[in-house]
Amino acid sequence: MRPPHPPDPERSAEWRSLFAAEARSPRPDLSALCLLVAAQADGSLDERGIDEAQMELDRLAGLLPFRPGGPRAWASALAGLLGERCGFHGTPGDYQRLESSLLHDVLRRRRGLPILLSVVWTEVARRAGAPVYGVALPGHFVVGFGPPGDQVLADPFDGGRVLTGTDAELLVAGATGAPLDPSMLSPADPLDVILRILNNVRAWATARPERSDVALWAVDLSLLLPSHPARLRYERAQLLVQRGDFLTGATELDAYADVVAAVDEPAADRVRRQAHAARAMLN
């Protein structure tokens, strides 16, 4: 199955505008932002499809038992519903699919990356009144129930399996080689979750040079977030050059060099040489 293709430029601009407005709202809605990312990726997703995805999250929340108890009871209830009854989980092969980063597709296929499955868990649980939040462990996103420091962790990628302290330590050690730091267990901010999702999309596209269109819209959305790495502007300029827009890419490389020059003049000179080489491609 071929991965989805973005909408036409006019429609794409509409989705970007909605994404920027939601990202800058006082309380950004995580599911809405995820679905706007999906709309930028999949030209077949429209307003009706977005509404249907939100209604599916509502429907799943309605299937949970009413206030089952403390954090562990909530974690068990989510695992029973989403992991066992509905079959939401992940496999290594899901890392090779763009659809695994798109919320509407994850809801349809019931498969996805750890972070998107965690979005399903948190959005369903939140609607049902659970004390829930995402936990951005290095290399593997999970879900927390209850107060930080005394929470219960669950792994939606593994069907919602409740993690022991040792399990969490092993996940972090496997990803970083370093021990688990208590700060890693803090609730993840919705905008940080979105940036991490977009990073995953960019990583998928980087491994597939023929899909530089995907890398470009993922960078564009990242740049619309109130806080983002400055180096994304350099990455965008490089993508424009790669896609044959040499003049715009060179202009953006020069602009990035002007910013870098304040702290690293040799690096700025290297970027300016890249801009010169891009302009030379027009000759």
UniProtKB/TrEMBL annotation:
<dbReference type="Pfam" id="PF13371">
    <property type="entry name" value="TPR_9"/>
</dbReference>
<dbReference type="InterPro" id="IPR032698">
    <property type="entry name" value="SirB1_N"/>
</dbReference>
<comment type="similarity">
    <text>Belongs to the UPF0162 family.</text>
</comment>
<feature type="domain" description="Protein SirB1 N-terminal">
    <location>
        <begin position="71"/>
        <end position="199"/>
    </location>
</feature>
<dbReference type="Pfam" id="PF13369">
    <property type="entry name" value="Transglut_core2"/>
</dbReference>
<protein>
    <recommendedName>
        <fullName>Protein SirB1 N-terminal domain-containing protein</fullName>
    </recommendedName>
</protein>
